[in-house]
């Protein structure tokens, strides 16, 4: 029985390009982001992968990425479940600000702490720890049981919601996961043992 999970961070968004804190705001993909999502679909097709079900956030950039991947796989009608549990981290008062402007306002060290600390949230927003506290229960209740039934699952989401999953799957410490860079539009393929442990992981950026 194949137990397969593919995680994909959405392609470059309009606000990624502008160097803005995005969070729960809803910009779409740039042309580069579209190209990244199409390339992700092509890589998965080259591996001979198709999916039984897909999960994504309620945000356009993740849904658009999913749609482009499935189009490449000839699976445009695949069941897709959308839930805000998979949304990006909420950046609170930083949302919509240019990252350089935020550094000028609060200082390099403070902004770095908000961005790269595991459990210190920005004003009015979520830390990575808080993001994990909503992502992981959803993953364990809704997604992992489907994987363990032998279905092939695609999850298209966001840098920090996926970091929360990767931290759990790979047994990483808070320090290790904060150093983990996730490329936009890059699939990460997990296969699982019968006991739910990770048998193999392949980052298709390699």
Automatic annotation (TrEMBL):
Keywords: Gluconeogenesis, Glycolysis, Isomerase. Gene3D superfamilies: Phosphoglycerate mutase-like. GO terms for biological process: gluconeogenesis; glycolytic process. It comes from the Bacteria. The record marks 158 as: Transition state stabilizer. GO terms for molecular function: phosphoglycerate mutase activity. Substrate binds at residues 9-16, 22-23, 61, 88-91, 99, 115-116, 159-160. Its EC number is 5.4.2.11. InterPro entries: His_Pase_superF_clade-1 (IPR013078), His_PPase_superfam (IPR029033), PG/BPGM_mutase_AS (IPR001345), Phosphogly_mut1 (IPR005952). The keyword Isomerase applies. It catalyses: (2R)-2-phosphoglycerate = (2R)-3-phosphoglycerate. CDD domains: HP_PGM_like. PANTHER family: PHOSPHOGLYCERATE MUTASE. This is 2,3-bisphosphoglycerate-dependent phosphoglycerate mutase. It comes from Breoghania corrubedonensis. The gene is gpmA.
